[in-house]
Amino acid sequence: MKTLIREVTVITMQDNNEIIRDADVVVDGQTISYVGPQKLWEENFDRVINGQGKLLLPGFVNAHGHAAMTLFRSYADDLPLMDWLQKRIWPAEGKLKREDVYWGTMLAILEMIKCGTTTFTDMYFFMDQVAEAAEEAGIRAVLARGLIGVGETADKGLEESEQFVKTWQGRGNGRITTMLGPHAPYTCPPEFLRRVMLLQETLAVPTHIHLAETRDEVERINKEFGVSPTMLLKNIGLFERPVLAAHCVHLSEEDMEILKEYNVCVAHNPGSNLKLGSGIAPVPDLLSRGITVGLGTDGAASNNNLDMMEEMRLAALIHKGNRLDPTVIPARKALAMATRESAKAVFLEKVGIVAPEMKADIIMLDLQRPHLTPQHDLVAHLVYAAQPADITMVMINGQIILEKGQLTTLDEEKIIFQAQQRALHLVQ
Ligand SMILES: [Zn+2]
User: Separation of 372 CA from ligand 1 center, angstroms?
Assistant: First the structure.
């Protein structure tokens, strides 16, 4: 399948923030084969798409989340993290069955695709169902079986993780990749984390962990081990291999130096951190050290949507307000965090940039909208003004998944019906 998109404005997200107007983009199979000035093409294409008045860019990469938590959206709001987890979320999660996770994930995927997300990252359980949903939907996914290192399920979690990685790594034409997912330093004691590291050595996949999300976590770890959560993970040796650390809200200067030294990637989740009252991550300081920072939504129970455009806008706004400085996290940086940098953070090399040889994970937006007029700065528009409803096309791995509001792989009505029924049942 060879597709030509004609006369489109492209934000490539290459390092120089290149914008090409009236460009042609060619997708050959799963890959982009040409991006540049219009040409008189002599070859035949299977499909030609008119890109006039449209903006084309890499799809968003959601660097941290728990997809099936869509089932708990608006079930537990306005609570601190520990109350939220212990009193509301964990009891409800205890009732989850495989099929619930499948439909909750499908609901998440449906929402994410409509918001221009082409890759999502997930840490949860019943991960075979998550992977099945991703495979069927056609979305790219970076998946980890979430692990709690205490209690009866600790061993089972490790076994399931191994099985999951062996079964799913590279499936769905390479769209599915895997990680190991120890939940957090306060739920996974050092001896358990060492077992995760042993497994990681055999499987050679990265680790995804929550880190320094709340002040409470830092105090608890400090009390028990006499060091910060970041220092604890360093001392255990977890950072010797690739790690994606979600949140990183409460970090000392020393912690940030450790993240830099070990090339730990960070998933910044501004919406979730604000809603749970966790704080504001020191993202400008992480970026000034050259640490890779991607963006994530976290689960829909703590956000409450999976809209990367909103996350990008929050990332661009909260640090300005927090630092009393309108120059921190400019629009270009926020857009990079939602695309190219998020892809790096979840260890995907061929995603996040519109260029030849990259995977064809791209979205198109309609620029003929009142809130996108006039067009002085298209990147500023994307970050400060655009809405998911402006998205006209989503392509993942060369396959069109959404076109003119219509999904090509998913039955929207059925997913909403199933998710609604199951969610009500879980909280009864
Ligand atoms: Zn999370």
Answer: 33
Q: What spacing in Å lies between the alpha carbon of 123 and ligand 1's midpoint?
A: 8
Q: For residue 306, how far is its CA from the centre of ligand 1 (angstroms)?
A: 13
C-alpha of residue 249 to centroid of ligand 1, in Å: 13
pLDDT tens for residues 345-404? 999 999 999 999 999 999 999 999 999 999 999 999 999 999 999 999 999 999 999 998
**Cα-to-centroid distance, 188 and ligand 1 (Å):** 15
Would you say 238 and 184 are in contact if contact means Cβ atoms under 8 Å apart? no
Question: How far is ligand 1, taken at its centre, from the CA of residue 327, in Å?
Answer: 29
| Size (the chain), residues | 428
How do residues 19-33 score in pLDDT, each as one tens digit?
Answer: 999 999 999 999 999
Task: Judge contact between 260 and 253, C-beta under 8 A.
Answer: no
Domain boundary assignment for the chain:
2-58+357-407, 60-345
Q: Diameter of the chain by CA atoms?
A: 70
For 60-345, the fitting CATH number among 2.60.40.10, 3.20.20.140, 3.90.1310.10, 3.30.70.870 is: 3.20.20.140
Q: How far apart are CA 183 and CA 392, in angstroms?
A: 36
Query: How many angstroms separate the alpha carbon of residue 180 from the centre of ligand 1?
Result: 14
Side chain identity, residue 251? L
Burial of 19 (0-12, 13-18, 19+ CB in 10 A): middle
Q: Which long-range contacts (CB under 8 A, 24 or more apart) does 160-164 make?
A: 160/125, 160/127, 161/199, 162/199, 162/202, 162/203, 164/127, 164/128, 164/131
CATH 2.60.40.420 fits 2-58+357-407, yes or no: no
